[in-house]
């Protein structure tokens, strides 16, 4: 389940209502305050919110129950029976509250849902009574024999709870997809897609549920109807979220999703926002981190059209965000198939990307520079790239990237800066087989910079991957211009085996620099 990492006090403040409600439920034993049957119980928090908020509240409650069950198992291992019982009572109350809350906003519950609810409530009540008996028993041998039964009951509760949550989320996904399928209203469809997007943000498991229920099929159906053009960006953004899982990718392939994306990207009548979100879907489904992209056979059939459209989007991008999405898609495609690099070369993509890097409003973050240098690194295996790099002042850009630093200190940004440094060194190493590129790099003082990155851990943020790439680039340039290195640098960084130089640099103290 997707959870935002927040300060512990803030987390406590967010959960305070839930915990207060739980204590009230303990006292009242799940009975409503109101005497009128048709009045809403004031303690049911979900009545104050919209359906989407209700679902978020349900997920929070589910997370609390899941955490409590884990803690019960831990306390049980330590034979802390007093704590086990009090936490069991609390879980019992949370389960009652969760079911009551859900039943106030759900449209209808299936027979299977009611059965699971009853099984879970009965088992929780049985568990509470059982732990109470354990609390009253002082005989260690009897407690030891009862412990296995407690463990078994706890496991059963966890299973019933997991099945119930799975059923609830499936039912919610089905309801939203029915709205998308049956409604001809743009407003209703947009609202349903927004709900689906919120669900997808809760993690891969939710994405699998949506995909299995036909979410990808329904969303691509929207993307093929002109009457819904105004909500294409939201629809494509939701698709990008769902397609992070294998089930979503399989569904995309079945409905010719690649062809639909290619049509959207090449249709100049669509807005830039629509093109950008289509690029985001392409970036997602071609991610080199996914292990299940090889079945996208239709992608190769449409690759040239898609790459051409993405290069154009990079060239005409009006903002850094649009450029980032388009360049990320291109970067992933260069990993996906080597033919993409040749297409990019024919389209003068290197010139376009190098020009974009000089515009700080467009390439404005280390993340964007990471995508650009990834493309350059993958294209640099082609011999023709060297002349393009020289003409576009690409060596100067690569030198700048060797000095990439995070301005915020944010962990993700620092990691992006490391990738920029590493890939720029890799690109220089590959391109320096061309004497003209090597000469340009030497004239721009590339060798001293590489030496500093090798010898100074702080310059490379203690990154081993940056160190290896810099050592490789330095050795390539040393072959072309051996006179530019001092003897000590040559003896330590070039002459030994790469692994020996690596070990030497990783063990260096900052004072040696």
From TrEMBL:
All copies of domain Protein inscuteable homologue LGN-binding, residue ranges: 4-48
A GO biological-process term: asymmetric cell division
Alphabetized Gene3D superfamilies for the sequence: Inscuteable LGN-binding domain, Leucine-rich Repeat Variant
GO MF, any single term: cytoskeletal anchor activity
SMART domains: ARM
Residue span, Protein inscuteable homologue C-terminal domain: 61-513
GO CC annotation terms, alphabetical: apical cortex
PANTHER family to which the protein is assigned, alphabetical: INSCUTEABLE (PTHR21386), PROTEIN INSCUTEABLE HOMOLOG (PTHR21386:SF0)
Protein's UniProt name: INSC protein
Biological source species: Erithacus rubecula
């Amino acid at each position: 389940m997707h959870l935002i990492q927040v300060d512990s006090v803030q987390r406590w403040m967010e959960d305070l209502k839930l915990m207060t409600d739980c204590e009230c439920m303990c006292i009242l034993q799940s009975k409503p305050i109101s005497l009128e049957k048709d009045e809403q119980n004031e303690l049911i928090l979900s009545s104050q919110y919209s359906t989407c908020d209700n679902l978020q509240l349900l997920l929070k409650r589910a997370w609390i129950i899941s955490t409590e069950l884990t803690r019960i198992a831990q306390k049980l291992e330590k034979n802390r029976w007093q704590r086990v019982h009090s936490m069991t009572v609390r879980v019992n109350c949370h389960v009652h509250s969760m079911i009551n809350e859900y039943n106030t906003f759900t449209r209808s519950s299936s027979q299977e849902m009611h059965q699971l609810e009853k099984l879970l409530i009965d088992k929780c009540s049985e568990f509470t009574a059982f732990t109470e008996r354990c609390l009253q028993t002082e005989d260690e041998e009897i407690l030891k024999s009862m412990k296995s039964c407690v463990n078994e009951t706890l496991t059963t509760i966890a299973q019933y709870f997991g099945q119930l949550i799975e059923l609830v989320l499936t039912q919610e996904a089905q309801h939203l997809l029915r709205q998308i399928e049956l409604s001809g209203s743009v407003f209703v469809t947009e609202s349903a897609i927004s709900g689906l997007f919120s669900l997808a943000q809760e993690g891969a498991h939710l994405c699998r549920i949506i995909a299995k229920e036909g979410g990808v099929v329904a969303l691509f159906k929207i993307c093929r109807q002109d009457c819904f053009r105004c909500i294409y960006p939201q629809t494509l953004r939701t698709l990008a979220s769902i397609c992070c899982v294998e089930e979503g990718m399989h569904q995309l392939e079945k409905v010719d999703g690649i062809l639909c994306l290619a049509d959207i990207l090449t249709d100049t009548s669509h807005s830039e926002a629509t093109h950008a979100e289509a690029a985001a879907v392409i970036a997602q489904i071609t991610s080199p981190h996914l292990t299940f992209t090889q079945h996208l056979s239709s992608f190769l059939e449409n690759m040239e059209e898609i790459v051409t459209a993405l290069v154009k989007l990079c060239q005409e991008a009006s903002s850094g965000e649009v450029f980032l999405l388009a360049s990320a898609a291109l970067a992933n495609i260069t990993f996906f198939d080597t033919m993409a690099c040749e297409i990019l070369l024919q389209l003068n993509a290197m010139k376009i990307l190098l020009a974009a890097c000089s515009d700080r409003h467009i390439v404005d973050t280390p993340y964007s520079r990471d995508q650009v240098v990834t493309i350059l690194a993958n294209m640099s295996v082609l011999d023709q790239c060297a002349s393009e790099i020289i003409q576009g002042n690409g060596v100067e850009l690569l030198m700048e990237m060797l000095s990439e630093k995070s301005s915020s200190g944010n962990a993700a940004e620092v990691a992006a800066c490391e990738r920029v440094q590493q890939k720029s060194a890799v690109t220089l190493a590959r391109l320096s087989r061309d004497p003209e590129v090597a000469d340009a790099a030497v004239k721009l003082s590339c060798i001293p910079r590489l030496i500093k990155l090798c010898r100074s851990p702080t310059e490379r943020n203690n990154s081993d991957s940056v160190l290896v790439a810099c050592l490789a680039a330095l050795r390539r340039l040393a072959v072309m211009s051996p006179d530019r290195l001092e003897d000590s640098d040559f003896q330590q960084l070039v002459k030994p085996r790469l692994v020996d130089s690596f070990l030497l640099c990783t063990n260096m103290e900052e004072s040696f620099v």
